[in-house]
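Let's do one together. I've listed all components of the complex below, 354 residues spread over two lines.
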Amino acid sequence: MSFLDYFRSRKNTGSANVAKERLQIIVAHERGKREQPDYLPELQRELVAVIRKYVQIEDDQVQVELDRNEDCSVLELNVTLPERR
Amino acid sequence: MARIIVVTSGKGGVGKTTTSASISTGLAKRGHKTVVIDFDVGLRNLDLIMNCERRVVYDFVNVIQGDASLNQALIRDKRVDTLYILPASQTREKEALTKEGVEKVINELSETFDYIVCDSPAGIEHGALMALYYADEAVVVTNPEVSSVRDSDRILGILQSKSRRAEMGQDPVKEHLLLTRYNPDRVEKGEMLSVADVEEILAIPLLGVIPESQVVLNASNQGTPVILEDQSDAGQAYDDAVARLLGEEREHRFMSSQKKGFFARMFKG
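Okay, and this is what the predicted structure of the assembly comes out as:
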């Protein structure tokens, strides 16, 4: 057993690399959110309200994101309309 | 002008108070006049870790509210005579720590002390924000474990946006990573995040690595800051961290397991 353990321990089979991958993803995601202006959630709610005057949509069918680049920022609006019946 | 250092983490139970006790003791032992403030209003514990719980008469909130002077509230350490403790109150509500009140106390301490160490409560609520607000430097205590690393990143975000330095547009708070409860054996087995992993994710300079050690519990049982256990690995690791905080170059230790020989590895039971 211990002979095999020796070779096994050389490989990176532990759970630490899973932890690292999961952390890299969640930390990048949360940093992205942190850098967004405070008004985005409010903007998103108001946009949903306006669009609802004309089309029935759910809250999560409007996505608002701000991409900051060197010299300009892009406000990206994604509205998914319901399928036509 | 005192240098203000916050010991923070977001997550609870990672070793903030242990670290505050050791770093303040280490700074004082080197001759710097140091005060360590417990910001955990309602759940004070620094007094126990520093073995002065029976000498608390007045506390931080009494001073803020004008019920006691700083001199009445400060407790002089019995081991290191350049070290003072300002305990948190045990009963009053957290909102007693106002920004103005904390500033008044810190300004007064600044006149006579070289270092002010702020022991932050866990979480990102009022007490934690007050502890970090006036900081010049931050020691972010992190365990090699997913929830602790994530919470440390959260606290870094708050340091970068909500501290006085951030609000005033001054130089940012100087951030230091202190990895505690590190178990090199488990890292080598791939069961625990390594120093390099945590450094890569948090992307702040490493102040030190404190190995997981039975000495830490023994020291807290007795109310001795671990740094005074100078024969122990954890004590020496804290001493290295304090030296680095003061700008000294010291090689990192206790990051790999005690090397077993080839045969010991092959034939272990």
